[in-house]
């Protein structure tokens, strides 16, 4: 028995020695230090040599680099099997809090990690138990609805935050949980404002913390709040310059306030970083397509339509790539290509090209309806109601299919359907009816402050009024829209 015990002790020492060597930075995410990912202080009761490795995993979490965070925590668990918090880290990596609702298989995996954390039997502190309990609240096998899970997790993280007021990680993760559990269609932005109040207190005292700046940007990612997010937007990329998401995220604020060149710079840097880290074998290559969406939008709003067109062709030449970055098995390359292909002729007012677009199938996503949406608008401007009607009906069929499959994209496709229906009314010469059909959509967009990646419904109302030879009414609508979408090229 003594020989067996000595053998396992020798193995443990070897593992810890190897990890200590990794800390010196030989490859991949081990190369990323605090100057590249930001500074995190998250003491755990695991073996001391892996403290930096664990904190690197937390820093990766704060920049939503979930693929690499999961690898890091799995490595920690391998080197210290008694580290319960390593399983907490894996469970956190599986839930992409602001991106999607985890699928059933992801929930199952998270439940397994929580069980491993709770049944570890190794060293663990009351603080660590509180973090694990919060994670268990989300992955509770007795709960089904995402909103309930997210709210339970946030309530549990509030207890951690209140129990450990000096723990900046508890504050940051609690603030993130408020964003993740934000009620749908909340025009008061109550959760965002509460999260921002927590984070602003930390921003001055912990300026190199990646989560603080990152979550402040998300908190202020609404046109009504965006100006407040500029300090965090200009800081975050400096905190975590190696993270593709950290380089992209400031553009959410720059797009909101119409700072197009800063928007362009952010996304060009993010795309380059995604490709660099992918070449090193690191995860997250698919993130570049989200940055490309924002880059395209900024090109269009700054009048650089030739650059926007070149970006579409660049994407078209890239290979299809399935990527699980959002917890859903779909092709972000195909989705980006469909989205930008649909938007370009509408932004350019090339109605003939829009009406002639070829359908692009991106199974089970909102992007599949975008081409149909653009075709309907193009046909409407050409006063071809029969053609527009066919696309309206096709969008409706897609919507019904997504509702039946309980897809997260069903609501977005329903919005496309309603907008296309309004343009069908326009094609039929029913201008007042078209405006009235768009008005509740515009009012909702204005109050919720949806991401500026498409054509605002308020601007569409103004376009219809201009076509109806009501320039003063159109002007009033353009002016309202420009307050929420400053420096939009079409509105100007």
Give your account of this protein's structure:
The chain is an all-alpha fold and 492 residues long. Helices cover 68% and strands 0% of the residues. The protein is elongated, with a radius of gyration of 24 Å. The model is unreliable at 1-27 (pLDDT under 50).
Descriptive key words:
mainly alpha; disordered N terminus; 492 residues; 25 helices
| Rg (CA only) | 24 Å
Tell the overall outline. elongated
> What fraction of residues sit in β-strands?
under 5%
Task: Please give the largest β-sheet.
Answer: none
**Termini Cα gap:** 80 Å
Determine the structural class based on helices, strands and strand pairing. mainly alpha
Q: Oligomeric status of the shown chains?
A: single chain
Helix content: 55-70%
Order of helices and strands: HHHHHHHHHHHHHHHHHHHHHHHHH
Low-confidence stretches: 1-27
Q: What is the tally of beta strands?
A: 0
Instruction: Summarize model confidence as the mean pLDDT.
Output: 90
Total number of helices = 25
Topology readout:
Layout: H1 2-23, H2 34-37, H3 51-62, H4 66-79, H5 84-94, H6 104-118, H7 126-138, H8 146-163, H9 168-180, H10 190-205, H11 210-219, H12 230-239, H13 244-248, H14 250-257, H15 260-279, H16 288-301, H17 305-317, H18 332-347, H19 351-355, H20 367-381, H21 385-404, H22 410-427, H23 431-448, H24 457-467, H25 471-484
Helix pairs in contact: 3-4, 3-5, 4-5, 5-6, 5-7, 6-7, 7-8, 8-9, 9-10, 9-11, 10-11, 11-12, 12-14, 14-15, 15-16, 16-17, 16-18, 17-18, 18-20, 20-21, 20-22, 21-22, 22-23, 23-24, 24-25
């Amino acid at each position: 028995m003594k020989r067996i015990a000595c053998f396992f002790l020798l193995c443990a020492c070897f593992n810890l020695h190897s990890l200590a060597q990794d800390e010196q930075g030989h490859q991949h995410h081990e190369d990323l230090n605090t100057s590249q990912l930001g500074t995190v202080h998250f003491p755990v009761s695991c073996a001391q040599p892996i403290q930096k490795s664990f904190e690197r995993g937390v820093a990766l979490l704060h920049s939503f680099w979930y693929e690499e965070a999961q690898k890091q925590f799995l490595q920690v668990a391998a080197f210290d099997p008694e580290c319960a918090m390593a399983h907490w880290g894996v469970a956190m990596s599986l839930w992409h809090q602001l991106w999607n609702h985890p699928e059933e298989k992801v929930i199952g995996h998270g439940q397994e990690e929580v069980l491993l954390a709770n049944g570890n039997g190794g060293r663990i502190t009351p603080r660590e138990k509180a973090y694990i309990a919060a994670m268990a609240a989300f992955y509770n096998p007795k709960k089904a609805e995402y909103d309930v899970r997210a709210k339970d997790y946030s309530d549990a993280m509030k207890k951690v935050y209140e129990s450990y007021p000096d723990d900046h990680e508890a504050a940051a993760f609690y603030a993130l949980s408020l964003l993740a559990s934000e009620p749908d269609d909340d025009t008061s932005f109550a959760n965002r404002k509460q999260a921002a109040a927590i984070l602003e207190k930390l921003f001055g005292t912990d300026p190199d913390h990646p989560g603080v700046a990152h979550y402040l940007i998300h908190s202020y990612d609404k046109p009504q709040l965006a100006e407040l997010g500029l300090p965090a937007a200009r800081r975050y990329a400096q905190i975590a310059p190696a993270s593709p998401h950290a380089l992209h995220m400031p553009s959410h604020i720059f797009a909101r306030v119409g700072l197009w060149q800063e928007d362009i710079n952010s996304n060009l840097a993010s795309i380059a970083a995604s490709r660099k880290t992918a070449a090193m074998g690191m995860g997250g290559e698919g993130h570049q397509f989200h940055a490309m969406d924002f880059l395209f939008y900024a090109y269009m709003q700054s009048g650089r339509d030739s650059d926007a067109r070149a970006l579409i062709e660049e994407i078209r030449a890239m290979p299809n790539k399935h990527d699980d970055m959002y917890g859903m098995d779909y092709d972000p390359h195909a989705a980006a290509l469909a989205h930008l292909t649909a938007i370009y002729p509408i932004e350019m007012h090339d109605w003939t090209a829009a009406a002639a677009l070829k359908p692009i199938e991106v199974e089970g996503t909102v992007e599949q309806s975008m081409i149909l949406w653009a075709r309907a608008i193009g046909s409407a401007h050409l006063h071809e109601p029969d053609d527009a009607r066919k696309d309206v009906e096709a969008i409706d069929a897609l919507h019904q299919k997504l509702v039946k499959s309980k897809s997260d994209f069903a609501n977005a496709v329903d919005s496309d359907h309603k907008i296309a229906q309004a343009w069908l009314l326009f094609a039929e010469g029913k201008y007042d009816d078209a405006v009235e059909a768009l008005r509740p959509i515009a009012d909702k967009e204005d109050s919720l402050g949806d991401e500026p990646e498409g054509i605002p419904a308020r601007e569409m109302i103004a376009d219809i009024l201009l076509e109806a030879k009501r320039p003063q009414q159109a002007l009033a609508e353009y002016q309202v829209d420009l307050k929420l979408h400053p420096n939009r090229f079409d509105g100007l």
